[in-house]
Amino acid sequence: MMEKKVKLRTVNSCITCILCRGYLIEATTTTECLHTFCKSCLVRYLEDHNSCPKCQTLIHQSHPMNYISHDRTMQDIVYKLVPNLQQKELRRQQEFFRKHASQGIKPELEDVNDNHTENVVSVKEENKDFHRHDEQLNVCLECQGTMKNLKRKFLRISSQATVSHLKKFVALKLYSDQTKYTNIEILCNDELLGKHHTLKFVAVTRWRVKDGPLLLHYRQKTLDF
């Protein structure tokens, strides 16, 4: 099988950040629209905005930074495609730590070896806590109407997750396509919920002091005539 070579500039638009126009560093993706940016660029942008810099999709009304995540796969692709980018970034970080050593900031990076193309950041894991510290809610998702039942209807989920996230979850589980979430409605006590409502808001305003998990129903979107 003949190997086909592709010039880097043909894929540049897929591996660069539209905010800084450079190659992605610490690639970070929004959970709403799945667009990717440099972590520092996106965090700086979200200090004053709550929507995606590329498509303007609302990430979250009040806590957009809770709905972005590190995209390790994308970052690995960028490092493999762009020669010496990882080595240059590691050297830049080491230089930063050297300049700020007086402030007690210590690097946990391995020395960069130009003879190797796969240098890895070394992180001390023994004292790291990987548990989530945001408030969690127990949720039960029941089917209402003719849609299929979920195989696992009980969820433990962040209280800052929105109704829109639940709709996408149901669409992914039932249709294997989260883009069909617009055809799904979520209800609590037979009341249709707004897509931007957080589960914390729903629990406080709709569920109140009821025992057990937050009971929500999903159904096919009703057509308006």
Automatic annotation (TrEMBL):
Keywords: Metal-binding, Nucleus, Zinc, Zinc-finger. The lineage of its organism: Eukaryota, Metazoa, Spiralia, Lophotrochozoa, Mollusca. This is Polycomb group RING finger protein 3. SMART domains: RING. Pfam families: RAWUL (PF16207), zf-C3HC4_2 (PF13923). It is found in: Nucleus. The keyword Transmembrane does not apply. PROSITE patterns: ZF_RING_1 (PS00518), ZF_RING_2 (PS50089). PANTHER family: POLYCOMB GROUP RING FINGER PROTEIN. Its main location: nucleus. One of its GO terms (molecular function) is zinc ion binding. Residues 17-56 form the RING-type domain. The keyword Protein biosynthesis does not apply. GO terms for cellular component: PcG protein complex.
